[in-house]
Amino acid sequence: MNTKAWIDISVPLHNGMHHWPGDPAFESCLFASIAGGKVCNVTQFKTSAHIGTHMDAPRHFIRDGITMEKMPLDAVIGPCRVVEIKHKVALTPEELKPLKLKAGERVLFKTRNSRRSWKMPEFDKDFIYVSKEAAQHIVDCGVMTVGVDYLSVGGFYKDGVETHNILLGAEVWIIEGLNLAKIQPGKYDLICLPIKMAGADGAPARAVLRKR
To answer: Residue 198's Cα: distance from chain center in Å?
Structure first.
């Protein structure tokens, strides 16, 4: 195995996939098909911008926040660190402080979500999330980009709005919906490119890692 190969950490979009309760589900179909007599195949889809592996722009929770097409590419291309979180409920400052997060750093947090939540038949409401206190610690450290391995940095029952407001209010770029099940903690190169949608509060993305 080539240890320097790029590893896809994205979740494939498909009908019936997990999505945030109340948001539009992902739907795709063949609008035109060769089998149906057309000269080419054309796929049609509709979805929320916050489906599968995707990014949040500040506009998602900040009224006049930056929109997706204005994201600096440095936020999602370059060295990053994958950190494994052991806490069974949420990221906490106590677990983050020993990591000595640095200004301008890109950090992806691996939790039990990667091995559990994506395999569940329906949306996992008890996924590991970033507590509002941990979010503030991340902002205080000057982190540029954070990634999490389920559909939200904030919890379903707690800190959903607060965590988003803290991170996005500080213009920390957020990657959600990663699958880090096959990734070991350590240093990597990251490429994560969201769809460049003008005026959007978020967008689906493809994310890959390569061991440094």
So the answer is: 19
Return the HEC string of 140-157: HHCCCEEEECCCCCCCCC
Model confidence at 176, pLDDT cuts 50, 70, 90, reads very high
Q: How far apart are CA 206 and CA 178, in angstroms?
A: 9
Residues 6+ apart with CB under 8 A from 63: none
Domain ranges within the chain, ordered by starting residue:
7-211
Residue 104: other Cβ atoms inside 10 A:
13
Average pLDDT rounded to a whole number, residues 182-192: 97
pLDDT in tens, 54-81: 999 999 999 999 999 999 999 999 999 9
Assess if CATH 3.30.70.330 describes domain 7-211: no
pLDDT digits (tens, 9 = 90+) for 41-55: 999 999 999 999 999
Which pLDDT score, from 0 to 100, does residue 3 have?
A: 63
SS3 state at 129:
strand
Residue 14 bears catalytic tag:
no
Of the listed 18, 19, 60, 137, which one is catalytic?
60
For the question of whether the overall pTM of this predicted structure is more than 0.85, the answer is yes
Helices (H), the chain: 93-96, 113-116, 132-141, 160-169
DSSP string of 4-30, one letter each residue? TS-EE-PPPP-TT----TTSPPPEEEE
